[in-house]
Amino acid sequence: MNPLTVRQHDTTTGPVLHVAGDLDYDQAPVLRDRLGRLPLSRGQCLVLDLSGLAFCDSSGITALLAARQHALAAGADIVLAAVPANLMRVITLVGLDQVFTLRPDSSAAS
What is the pTM of this model? Predict the structure, then answer.
């Protein structure tokens, strides 16, 4: 088990959260809690950099959807960046590639 870590850096367009470790049933509340305390403004873009993600289960997918809802409720956009290949496969299979904006990395958010 890899504990989940969430590091934040702010850019001119909005916050970038670097998510690393396992995003699973035990760890998904860590991300959800962090998102609940993250102020977003209309027009900002929340970027979730998933390059450090080792594992993601259905609870993790639900946490990503909660992040999307948090952003939309604030009038902000959301981008999933650097999605690992195994997670990208799941996202594509369940059609979430039609729901999320996906980018190869988070450099565009700087």
Answer: 0.94
